Amino acid sequence: MAHVLMAVTGADTITLADGTAHPTGFWAEELVELHRGLVEAGHDVTIATPDGVRPPVDPGSLAAEGADALRAYLDGIDDLLSHPRGLGDVRDGEYDAIVLPGGHGPMVDLAVDADLGRLLVDAADRDAVVGVLCHGPAGLLSAVREDGSFAFAGRRIAVFTDDEERQGGLGEGTPYLVASRLAELGAIIEPATPWSVEVVRDGRLVSGQNPQSSVTTAEQVVEALAER
Question: Structural domains in the chain?
Answer without folding.
Answer: 3-226 (3.40.50.880)
